[in-house]
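ok so for the tutorial part 2 we go from a plain amino acid sequence to predicted structure tokens. step 1 is just haveing the sequence, like this:
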Amino acid sequence: MRRLFPVTDETAARDSGGGPGMEGADREWALEELAEAYAYPSSASPDASGRAGAAEPRPWLRANMVSTLDGAAQHDGRSQPISSAADMRIFGTLRALADAVVVGAETVRQEGYRPARAREDFAALREAAGQGPAPAIAVVSASLDLDFSLPLFTSPLVPTLVLTGAAAAPDRIAAAEKAGAQVVIAGDGMGVDPARAVRELAERGLYRLLTEGGPRLLGQLVAAGVLDELCLTVSPMLTAGDAQRIAGGPPVAVPRRFELTSLLEEAGFLFSRYRRT
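step 2 — the prediction. this is what the tokens look like for a chain of 277 residues:
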């Protein structure tokens, strides 16, 4: 992997494996380097409020998505066929840095979501950041049409959260709670209000948030203006067909502007990081 942007003498030397101006082969980055490259802003850390005069921490919501050159976010309904080993390393790193992973119910069903696992490689980093052994999974669902017998709900390392609206069916709420999930009301009707969902998670001490989609949920987050950052992998593949883009749903009135803050490359895959301006 090599850094394409931003590049300084220091980063160029590190990525080449030598001093400035020295040539070097592309190499696999250590997990510690990836964690540094994708660190959350300090304002999203609860530790920020522990110093005299420091501001209260604020939630930071980033998305991690993958897209082919022709804009497909999936192939045969799943993202794995357009991913790569490097993409999966970044996927694991982003999860390891997060307090909670926010995901739509349809993605849970299609991708066969399981509980986040504790990773020994990141144990010390999470402990130093005041985090538990693994991030919580927070499933967004209006209908609660979910299989609550799955390990995601019955045997997670930390309890799975289910974000839904106040009008959700009481029997489905009861089924979720019976399975061990924590139901969080984040909307006045059937659906979930994205801004309220972020606030509800922050009130539970979950400030470093990661969403893995799917496209419908990401579109809702974009439309609500609550997405702070997009980590987008551009896969050097073409699929044609009618696969979804990374974000779906009604268009926003005015396009949201983001700025490029980082660009990495490995084996033709581009790993970009954009922040809201």
